[in-house]
Amino acid sequence: MSADQITFREFLLSQRSQHKLDKDLIFLMEDIATSCRIISHQIRGGAFAGRLGATTSTNVQGETQKQLDVIANDVFVRHCSNCGRVAALVSEEVDEVYWLKDKPEAGDYLVYFDPLDGSSNLDVNLSVGSIFSISQLPTAIDATDDRSVLRVGAEQISAGYSVYGPSTALVITTGNGVHGFTHQQGTGEFRLTFPDMTILEATSEFAINASRYTLWDQPVKRYFDECIRGKDGPREKTFNMRWTASMVAEVHRILIRGGVFLYPRDAGNNADGGKLRLMYEANPMALIVEQAGGFASTGIERILDVQPNSHHQRVPVILGSKEEVAVLERYHRES
Ligand SMILES: O=P(O)(O)OC[C@H]1O[C@](O)(COP(=O)(O)O)[C@@H](O)[C@@H]1O
Ligand SMILES: [Mg+2]
Ligand SMILES: [Mg+2]
């Protein structure tokens, strides 16, 4: 371990002095790191403790909840409630907004999270993760009004995700670049192993669930067909494809070696507006991708500019290497 692999706390304290981070934000981010550490432990021991498999309950998305979805949600709620500046929590696994304060003040935090992302991978031992986003209330509000959590993505003050894969990683931004940490067995510390992560502008690797091909709109079909035609096609280069069914794993791969990830709105999810959720999947990942020099779009507009109309709203997602996202936006404009 080299000396510069500083701990998560040391890193946040250095960001505090450089970028005037609020001390309460540091405490909250440490509570989130603790949640990820505990969830990582719960997942890795899942098979022994009978924590794999589904519950009998469904969440607001109409999905059957995995046992670990519920466990991870409870861990986030317990730890994020420690910080006295948190006004409300919004979780993928819970219908209503969790208000922690009756009279929230200006500047209080709003924490949005997907406690377990890629949960269909759990029982087959593939990578999953957690995603979080933090915004602030612009003004004090007299009563707990759910509309006040509908903040535009560009207002986020911090976002991040963890991946529970071969190792446990935690990747964050506070608006000052993107930095990745790896969980160190033994000490339990998250140590800085990927400082200043950046996304390659050009790539020849894309990720999409190709089994939905017949459901796609023309711009996405055109993009996919051209990638598949490779060197002999209009793109004149060979493309590789990946699909892990876990957004966190896709985004982590893109931060490390570039690429583009798509979950478009299609004939199958059109009524819902898409598959992935704006407030705790698309927005945090869009902030991270943009902070790393990539771009995130619905195909039509920048994800961070989407005005939310519900805290479980879904949107089309196209994110990653700038050049490929630009091609896809152009195909949407031309269609
Ligand atoms: O089942 P599909 O179509 O492959 O969808 C996979 C996508 O759904 C998700 O699993 C949705 O997230 P959750 O597991 O948190 O519900 C994404 O992580 C992933 O990109
Ligand atoms: Mg998810
Ligand atoms: Mg989830």
From TrEMBL:
Catalysis: reaction(s): beta-D-fructose 1,6-bisphosphate + H2O = beta-D-fructose 6-phosphate + phosphate
One Gene Ontology biological process: fructose 6-phosphate metabolic process
Cofactor: binding comment: Binds 2 magnesium ions per subunit.
Domain Fructose-1-6-bisphosphatase class 1 C-terminal: 201-332
Binding site for substrate: 117-120, 209, 275
Entry's EC annotation: 3.1.3.11
Binding partners and assembly: Homotetramer.
Organism expressing this protein natively: Aliishimia ponticola
InterPro entries for this protein: FBPase_C_dom (IPR044015), FBPase_class-1 (IPR000146), FBPase_N (IPR033391), FBPtase (IPR028343)
Name under which the protein is recorded: Fructose-1,6-bisphosphatase class 1
Manganese as UniProt keyword: no
Residue ranges annotated for the Fructose-1-6-bisphosphatase class I N-terminal domain, each copy included: 7-193
Location (main, coarse): cytoplasm
